[in-house]
Amino acid sequence: MSGEVWQVITTTADEQDAKKLAQAALEKRLAACVQIGGPVESSYWWNGRIESAREFVCVFKTTSAAYPKLEKLLLELHPYEEPEIVATPAVAVSSGYSKWIAAQLKQKA
């Protein structure tokens, strides 16, 4: 396997932006799977104030080796000025799923 399995999370203001990010990551083989959920209610600090917004959560299944390119893609395409991009290494992953993710990222689109 080329790198350990990671989950990368970002949020978007609308479902279409979430789908655009997911499609781009999948087409470039930077994620094997992307789950989109929502809307969710987010509360956060922005420009010195507490803000609230409805957002869609995107969870990308990738590897540590593919993460730098995935992060670059998300930063290029994301509509937010400062998007949430949080990558978390998986503590445990079934062998078959781990191999499947690695295989999807190696294939040519």
TrEMBL record:
PANTHER family on file: DIVALENT CATION TOLERANCE CUTA-RELATED, FI09726P
Domain of life where this protein originates: Bacteria
Molecular-function GO term, any one: copper ion binding
Designated name of the protein: CutA1 divalent ion tolerance protein
GO biological process: response to metal ion
Family note: Belongs to the CutA family.
